[in-house]
C-alpha cells in the first residue's frame, strides 16, 4: 500500500520535484545557467491535464527543492550567529521555503485554469503568470525577490541587456516563454486532438513571434555591449578587511580591526584612488559618539587625502528608549569633512528589525536580542569629487525598484557595501554578488562592491564583471572605472513591463472567474 502511494505521489508530483532540483543547479553555485531554459519543461507538461487543485500541490512541491536548494545558506547565519541549534535553524529555513512555495503553487493553479479553459499557448501564459508571481513575491510582506529565475542568467550578457528596459522580470519572462514553447511543441498533437478547433496557426504565429523576440533581444544585447558609455573615468579602491564576524563588535579586538583597515587602505592609497570604499559596518564603534575613535578616523583620512566611504552604526536619537540606531554609510572628503550620510532604507527582517512585532508576539522568543533599527527615508546620492553615486547597503542591492529610485535623475555609479560574513562559505555570497549585475544593467551604472569577507568587485554598466575578489581573503582592489551618466528606460519608467503582465493576468482571470470559483469550491 505504501509503495503504491509513493508511486502515485511521484507520478503526480515527480516532474515538479525534478524541475525544482534542476532550477537549483542554474544558480551559483553550481551555475549551470543554460539549464534554466529547459528546467521547467517537465513541470509545465505535467500541468496540462491536472486539476487546478492538483496543480497547486505540484507547484508547491516544485518550490520546496527550488527554494531550499537556493536558500539553504540562511541556516548558517541563524545557527552560527543567532544562537539557534542546527535543527532549529533548518526548521526556520524550511518554514521560509514553505511560505515561498505558496507562490509557485499559486502559479501552477492559475496556469492550470488558463491552459485548460482557453486556447492560449503555454509560451504566452506561463511567462506572464510567472512574472506576476515573482513581482508579487518581491513586494509582499516586505518583499523577498531572492532566487528570481532571471538572476540565473547573470553570465548570459547578450540576452540580459534588455533588463535596462524590462528589468530583471523580462529575463524571467524569456526563460519561461522558452520552457512554455517546448512544452507546447511536445504536447501540440495531443492538444489538437483534444481541443475542438484548436488554433494551430495562431500557435505558430506566437512561436514565430517568440523566435523573433529572442533574435531581437540578442541583437539589442550585442549593440549595447559594443557601445562606449558616456561618463568620466575614476580610480576607485575597494577594501576587503576580512574581519571575522565574532571580532567585529568585540571591544578587545577594536584596535586590531581598525589597524587592519588602515594597513590595507594605506597600501591602496599609494595608487592615488579618487575614492576608497570600506564595507558595511566596517567601524567597530559608533561613529560620532566615540569622540576619540571618530577623531582617529578623521585624522587618518586627512593623511591619505582622498574620499573615504565606510559603513557604520550610528545613533539617531539618544533621547528615545531603546536608543534609535541606523545602519549607515558615511563619506569623508579629502579634508576629513563629513559630506554625506545615508541611512539604510530596506532593513533585513528578523536581522535588523522584527516585522509585525505587536501581532507576532511569539516571534520575540525566537529572535531574542534583535533590535529595531531606524530605517532611512531619503533616496539621496553622494556628491563628491569622485562623482555622484548612490550607496546601497547589504541586500538593498537585490531590490530593483528601490535601486532605480536613486536614478530618476542623473548619477554616475552605484556603491554596494555589505557584510556577507554571515553566510560563511556557502552559495549565499555568490548569489548576492550575481544580483548586482542586473542593477548595473537596469540603471546603466557601474557597481563598486565592497564586502567584508567577499565577494568584492567592479561591474561595468553592461553587467561585465571586471574584477572580483575571493571569499575570505584580506585584500584590496584599485582599478580605473568608466562611470556612466546614461539614464536608462528602466530608471525612468520602472517596472512597466511587469505592470503590463499584471494587467493581462487580471483581465484573463476576470474572464475565468466563474471557473476559478468552481475550482475553489472543490478544494
Task: Name the features.
six-stranded mixed β-sheet, 2 domains, 523 residues, alpha/beta, Nitrilase/N-carbamoyl-D-aminoacid amidohydrolase
Structure in a nutshell:
The protein has about 525 residues and is α/β, with parallel strands linked by helices. It has 20 helices and twelve strands.
Query: What is the tally of helical segments?
Result: 20
Q: Beta-strand level of the residues, as a percent range?
A: 5-15%
Helix proportion of residues, in percent? 40-55%
CATH topology-level fold name of the largest domain: Nitrilase/N-carbamoyl-D-aminoacid amidohydrolase
Round the Cα radius of gyration to an integer and report it: 25 Å
**What's the CATH C level of the largest domain?**
Alpha Beta
The name of the CATH superfamily of the largest domain reads Carbon-nitrogen hydrolase
**Major sheet: arrangement of strands:** 5-4-3-2-1-12
Mean pLDDT: 90
Derived structural class? alpha/beta
Which ranges are low-confidence, i.e. pLDDT below 50, for 5 or more consecutive residues? 360-370
The coarse overall form would be globular
Cα-to-Cα separation, first versus last residue: 25 Å
The total count of strands amounts to: 12
Provide the number of structural domains. 2
What is the CATH architecture term of the largest domain? 4-Layer Sandwich
Amino acid at each position: 500500500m505504501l509503495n503504491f502511494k509513493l508511486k502515485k505521489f511521484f507520478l503526480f508530483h515527480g516532474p515538479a520535484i525534478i524541475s525544482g532540483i534542476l532550477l537549483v543547479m542554474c544558480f551559483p553555485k553550481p551555475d549551470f545557467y543554460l539549464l534554466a531554459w529547459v528546467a521547467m519543461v517537465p513541470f509545465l507538461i505535467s500541468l496540462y491535464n491536472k486539476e487546478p487543485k492538483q496543480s497547486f500541490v505540484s507547484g508547491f512541491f516544485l518550490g520546496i527543492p527550488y527554494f531550499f536548494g537556493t536558500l539553504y545558506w540562511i541556516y548558517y547565519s541563524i545557527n552560527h550567529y543567532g544562537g539557534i541549534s542546527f535543527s532549529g535553524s533548518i526548521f526556520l529555513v524550511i518554514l521560509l521555503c514553505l511560505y515561498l512555495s505558496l507562490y509557485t503553487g499559486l502559479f501552477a493553479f492559475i496556469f492550470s485554469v488558463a491552459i485548460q479553459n482557453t486556447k492560449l499557448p503555454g509560451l504566452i501564459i506561463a511567462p506572464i503568470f510567472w512574472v506576476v508571481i515573482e513581482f508579487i513575491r518581491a513586494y509582499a510582506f516586505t518583499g523577498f525577490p531572492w532566487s528570481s529565475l532571471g538572476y540565473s542568467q547573470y553570465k548570459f550578457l547578450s540576452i540580459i541587456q534588455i533588463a535596462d528596459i524590462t528589468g530583471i522580470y523580462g529575463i524571467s519572462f524569456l526563460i519561461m516563454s522558452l520552457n512554455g514553447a517546448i512544452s507546447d511543441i511536445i504536447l501540440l498533437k495531443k492538444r489538437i486532438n483534444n481541443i475542438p478547433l484548436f488554433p494551430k496557426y495562431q500557435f505558430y504565429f506566437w512561436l514565430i513571434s517568440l523566435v523573433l523576440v529572442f533574435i531581437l533581444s540578442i541583437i539589442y544585447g550585442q549593440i549595447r555591449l559594443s557601445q562606449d558609455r558616456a561618463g568620466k573615468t575614476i580610480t576607485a579602491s575597494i577594501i576587503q578587511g576580512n574581519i571575522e564576524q565574532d571580532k567585529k563588535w568585540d571591544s578587545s579586538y577594536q584596535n586590531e580591526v581598525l589597524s587592519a583597515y588602515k594597513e590595507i587602505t594605506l597600501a591602496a592609497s599609494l595608487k592615488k584612488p579618487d575614492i576608497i570604499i570600506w564595507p558595511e559596518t566596517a567601524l567597530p564603534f559608533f561613529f560620532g559618539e566615540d569622540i576619540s575613535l571618530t577623531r582617529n578616523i578623521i585624522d587618518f583620512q586627512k593623511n591619505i587625502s582622498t574620499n573615504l566611504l565606510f559603513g557604520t552604526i550610528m545613533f539617531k536619537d539618544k533621547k528615545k528608549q531603546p536608543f534609535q540606531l541606523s545602519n549607515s554609510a558615511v563619506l569623508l572628503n579629502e579634508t576629513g569633512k563629513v559630506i554625506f550620510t545615508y541611512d539604510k532604507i530596506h532593513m533585513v527582517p528578523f536581522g535588523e528589525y522584527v516585522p509585525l512585532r505587536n501581532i507576532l508576539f511569539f516571534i520575540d522568543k525566537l529572535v531574542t536580542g534583535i533590535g529595531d533599527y531606524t530605517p532611512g527615508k531619503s533616496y539621496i546620492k553622494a556628491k563628491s569629487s569622485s562623482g555622484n553615486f548612490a550607496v546601497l547597503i547589504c541586500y538593498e542591492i537585490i531590490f530593483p525598484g528601490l535601486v532605480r529610485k536613486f536614478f530618476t535623475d542623473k548619477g554616475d555609479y552605484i556603491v554596494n557595501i555589505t557584510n556577507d560574513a554571515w553566510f560563511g562559505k556557502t552559495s549565499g555570497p555568490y548569489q548576492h554578488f550575481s544580483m548586482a549585475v542586473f542593477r548595473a544593467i537596469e540603471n546603466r551604472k557601474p557597481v563598486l562592491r565592497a564586502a567584508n569577507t567577499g565577494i568584492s568587485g567592479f561591474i561595468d554598466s553592461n553587467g561585465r564583471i571586471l574584477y572580483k575578489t575571493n571569499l575570505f581573503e584580506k585584500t584590496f582592489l584599485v582599478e580605473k572605472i568608466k562611470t556612466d551618466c546614461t539614464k536608462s528606460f528602466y530608471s525612468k519608467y520602472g517596472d512597466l513591463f511587469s505592470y503590463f503582465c499584471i494587467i493581462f493576468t487580471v483581465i484573463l482571470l476576470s474572464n475565468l472567474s466563474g471557473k476559478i470559483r468552481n475550482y475553489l469550491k472543490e478544494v
